[in-house]
Amino acid sequence: MAQATNQIFGALWLKGLKMTADMLIGTCFDGYHLRGCTNSNTTSMHYGISNQLVSGKTYCLQCCSNPTSIGNDETWDLTCPLTRMEQSTVINDINKEYVFARRRNLTDTGLIYCTWPKRNGGLYLVGYSLQIVVQEYSASSGSIFWVGVESCSVSAIESSTLPTIFTERIRIVSSLESYTPSSLWYLLLGAVLIVMTFSSYVFYRGYIRHERCVNCASKFVVYNSLCLLCILCGCRLHSPPPRVFCAQEFEKDDTSSVSSHHQKEQQDNNKQME
């Protein structure tokens, strides 16, 4: 269903005659089907508009080749020679309307209409000026892309002189879609900032201040002069302090030891006397 195209689907249609999106999809807008049109807008030639204007063939309206900072804005200023038969068809045309496929998604069946303003009965139609507001869409990482039409407006170019040249001036304008990041994007950004801050802190302590882990001598010091691995392993900050003995307790222990020694000697002497 035309899932990878820059073509703008639309047609000039008889007012009151039923039109559906299925009928338009795949139908590139080509105005009055005039052949041999040339581009009079020399400033747009390097954007490729003139490259697809082939003598003897109708043009196909496409978007967009003139990107700006806020979207696209390009004008197809076409002049098309009229044969006698084409002249008789277009100069008094009053019962047509412009119909475009909206295409906000690939299953959208909406249509966009713009009709002729009130014509002057005594003048010939020698051209029209059409403005189309479009939106560019994409999916599947850009492998699928298409163009939808949001609105259009048209005005007639009229003259009292019978024309031999028909003018089709088509301006295509698009605005860039506003982008709103998801909450997951903010969470990811926050996580990256935390990791970067933590890494900078560790680098500063180990490689600028030359601190080392008191347990394993690693440079990746995190907290309390310990590296992260030692903290996770439960390693102690310092070796246990030496045991301190109280002087009084020491004297008690020494007295008890001497007393026990005397008692033992007395017992040994008694045994010898017996």
Automatic annotation (TrEMBL):
Region feature Disordered, mapped onto this chain: 253-274
Regions that span the bilayer: 184-204
Key words, A-Z: Membrane, Transmembrane, Transmembrane helix
Protein name: Uncharacterized protein
Ranges of compositional bias, category Basic and acidic residues: 262-274
